[in-house]
Design a protein that fits this description.
The chain has 285 residues and is an alpha+beta fold. The protein is globular. The two termini are 14 Å apart.
Length: 285
Amino acid sequence: MKEHITRRSSLSKIGLTLAGLAALPVAKAAKAAVQNGLASPSAPKAYDPTKHKWVMAIDANRCIGCGLCAEACKKENSVPEGHYFRTWIERYTILKPKPDSAEARGETIVDSPNGGLKGFREPPLKPDNQPVEKAEILHAFFVPKLCNLCLHSPCAQVCPVGAKFDAPDGAVLVDPTYCIGCGFCIQACPYGCRFLTPETPETKARGTAGTAQKCTLCYHRITRGLKPACVEVCPTQTRIFGDLMNPVPNDPIQQFYKDNRVQTLKPHLGTEPRVLYAGLDKEVR
C-alpha cells in the first residue's frame, strides 16, 4: 500500500534525482542485460524471461478477507513491519439507501485495517466514526490489491535512473541498487502499490533503506517453478497465477478467461494492467 508522500517531500529530493541522472548509462546497461535474459539477480541463470508471460487473476467473488495472503507476502519478501504492504485487502461496504432517497444504493465505505493482515474482525466505520450496523448493509465484499503489472508502466516512465523496468516475462521489477528513493514512482502509480522502505537494522544491512518496493510476483519463486506466496496460501483459490506462454492441462488462467467477464482496475488510464479481476463491483477503484 502506498506510503504517504507529499509533493514537497519529493521535491526536496530533486538534488538526489539530478545527481542520479549521471547513473543513467549504467542503469540502461542493466536494463539491457535484463532484456537479454537476466531478468533479476534473484532469478536462476537458466531462466529465460522471453519464454514466459506471467499473469495474475483474482476472483473477488471468492475472497473471504482472511488476510493470509498479506501475511504470507510479508514473511516471504521480508516486508518491514508496520503499515507497509506489497499486497493488501480492501473491504467494500455498500450501505442501503436512505428511506427518502431515489437511489438504488447508499454510501460506499472502503477500509483496510492494517492492510487486512489480521482479517476484518471489527465492523467498518461511517464518516461520523460510528460502526456500521448489520441491518444497514446492502452488500459487502473484499478485493485483494497488488501491483497491476502495467504494460505501459507509469512508474517505469518516470524513474530518472531506470531502476524500475518491465521484464520480458511481464513482471515489473525494481533494482534496489539503482533506486535513489526519489519517490517519483510512488506518485506516478495510480494503484497505490508502492512504498519506500523505512530505515531499520534489517533494511540498512541489506542496503534497501529508502528504496522503492512493491509486489514482484515473488520473482525469486516463479522463476524456479513455484507459485507466488499469496497464491500458495489462499484457502479459497481467489488468486490464480499462470503462464500464458506455457499453459498446462486444465489451465486455471484459461479457465478464468472462459468462465468470467474479465476486468481490470482503472482501464481508462491506458496502463493496460495484467492483473485481471472477476466479480468487481462498479464501486471498486
